[in-house]
Amino acid sequence: MVRKKRRMFDIDMPEDLPAERSAEVPNPPGAETPAAVPETKTFPAGKVGDPSGAARRRGPMATAIGETAHSARERQEIEARIRAENDALAHEHVRLKRLGLVLESIPLEAVDTAKLVRDRKPGADPELEDLKASIVSIGLSNPIRVEAAGQGRYELIQGYRRLAAYKALLAETGDAEAWGTIPAAVMPEGEGIETLYRRMVDENLVRKDISFYEMAQLAVDYAADPATPETDPDRAVALLFKSARYQKRSYIRGFIKVVERMKGILAYPEELPRALGLALAQRLEEDPECRAAIAETLKGWEGRTVADELAAIRQQLGVEAGAEEDPRAAPKPAPKRAGGSKAKTSFQLNRKEGRARCTAADGRLEIRLPRDFSTIDRRRLEEAVRQMLDRLE
């Protein structure tokens, strides 16, 4: 006889007969005695054998399928939460990057500095050594700011001196791992040129060492930049220095005259004190010959110091050292001789002691020579001056 194999999931049948049956069961055909009647049983609701079928025994396969479906739902819910968190983080990253708050380490050679005209004059920076020492000691506390330019290139917006310090450290040490890259806040490409200039200017306004001459030079360069909409340096001051006080903007406009008319003549224009620079600007406006007189005094004067240059300017303006620092003191008008001739005559003479600089003015004759005249006997000095004056008659 072939026995049918019982399947594992076909075991959810009641273990006992139904609870209520007739007390007598007819004998099967051919039986001589009545069949035994099973004892009547009742089942609590929900238990095995419940005739209502409220609780049925589940097979192992059904249990496994249910557990698998439950795990799948939990996994889908977890994955959905992870995707939502990742989307939120991505949006926040984009927002912070647009604000320039996401830092990247970029190669020095990938940074270009041609898009904006810098407000620093070319040449050696005397403060670069201090900046390098600070970076080596405590690191770069203020990252540079660049604009993405595509193809792995960046345009510098802020941090020219910091970039120069890193380049100098790389050149001195050759340590590309330490100084070959620089921390930078990368701005998205596409900001207007006016905004980029404003970012650079606003950062520089907090610097204590930036001079009025440098700020005026930046306004002049901005007006000359073909990429900017403004061509008038005076109006460029209003655009670039919106956050500065009105009085400060007025000073910058005054220095524009010095920038435009003394270019190539002064070796240390950024060292001009505010009041002296404004006095020079006013004199250049009133006396067209002032520029030529200063140029003649400084012509060929090699190795001159900041003090020498400032002294020559003060001499031409007729002010004493320190007197022009009083903003209430108006610069003296340039004295002129009858006929409109030059009020002063300046020239230089080569002597064995060095270069003698002579200035002749109304009521004054001055000779500057690198020699201590106080060591000369008074009578001898007096006789020499007398003979000179006699020969001038």
UniProtKB/TrEMBL annotation:
The record's InterPro entries line, in alphabetical order, gives: Chromosome_partition/occlusion (IPR050336), ParB/Sulfiredoxin_sf (IPR036086), ParB_N (IPR003115)
Task: Name all ParB-like N-terminal domain ranges.
Answer: 104-205
Region entry Disordered, spans: 1-73, 320-356
Q: Which Pfam families match?
A: ParB_N
Organismal lineage: Bacteria, Pseudomonadati, Pseudomonadota, Alphaproteobacteria, Rhodobacterales
Entry superkingdom: Bacteria
Tell me which species this is from: Rhodovulum viride
Output this protein's name: Replication protein
Q: Which PANTHER family match?
A: CHROMOSOME-PARTITIONING PROTEIN PARB-RELATED (PTHR33375:SF1)
